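Researcher: I'd like a structural prediction for the single chain below. Treat it as a standalone chain; there are no partners to consider.
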Amino acid sequence: MVENNSRANLSYRGDIVGIEEAAIDGTPDSKCYDDDGRVKRTGGSSVKICGIVQYLNLFGSAIGYNIAAAMSLMEIRKSYCVHSSNGTDPCHISGNPYMIGFGVVQLFLSQIPDFHDMWWLSVVAAVMSFFYSTIALALGISKVAETGTIMGSLTGISIGTVTPAQKVWGIFQGLGNIAFAYSYSFVLLEIQDTIKSPPSEGKAMKKAAKLSIAITTTFYMLCGCMGYAAFGDNAPGNLLAGFGVSKAYWVVDLANAAIVIHLFGAYQVYAQPLFAFVEKEAAKKWPKIDKEFKVKIPGLPVYNQNIFMLVWRTVFVIISTLIAMLIPFFNDVLGVIGALGFWPLSVYFPVEMYIIQMKIPKWSRKWICLEIMSTFCLIVSIVAGLGSLVGVWIDLQKYKPFSLEN
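Model: Treating it as a single chain, here is the predicted structure.
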């Protein structure tokens, strides 16, 4: 489960950065910008489809982060239970209290104006990501060194442990998880808007993308490979869970705590663009909805609270928390989210924008290569989505709603 989706990391992910640079470096024109200073989105139905997919993914990410945070908190509680009872307590722990607790914290964080724009949030997220990823990698290496055995095989999980059909669906689900791991495109434009110039946003993003993608991909590959080498066919969805009962359990607890801290901010990074969109559209349709009242907190400046913002954001957090409790299948949920957003947001729309921007002739070699790549990624998204949906269906046969347990 080792994730690295902080605002800081997302702000410089992108395998098609040239598209963004080409779109930005054009001649400035006031007609090309919205009243909030952002580049105006045009294109009719394409923009609406892109927006729907983007906001569905943002909503799905909020659900996935709630599940992930609950799983890490459960591992911390389980570790304490096992070691305090010397292994005599079976330590059955429900994830519902932790999901509710995470949701309650998000209720308060969601009311902080421009919470996701706080500079220290990116620093904290980046540090936490590096911290728990490094621990997971180090623990994987140490376990392989301790046993002197590399578990697993080059062909993946063994037939017998799972059926051939389950292995195929599992591979497809894995593709969805990989797609989610590089889900920078969900909030790419929002993050690009925060970059100050000079240098231009395009140049800054391109430079950062080259460095960050190299670093994050290296970490992903090392953590995934060493985790599989350490546990083989029994590798857990949350890699850190496999080390919870080891002598270094306190190190694992620190790593899980870092994940939780990271996800508190990551939830807001993904939720805030959706909050802003709904609030802006509501203000356009119902101008009087923007009423505020003053909140006096001892020791702090008077806070102006928007009534609609309070109600809407509270409802959002409650619904996302309830859905997370209803289908607490971390890997499957991430696979579905990744498959849903990967092709349209990371491939199709950027490629089409690039073709138009660069005026690439139809049926030219470059056009054909781009379209082949786009088609291939579409197929990957489809099979990844199917694999993840099958995973959810299989899990629903074994689990009861609202019953996440370790």
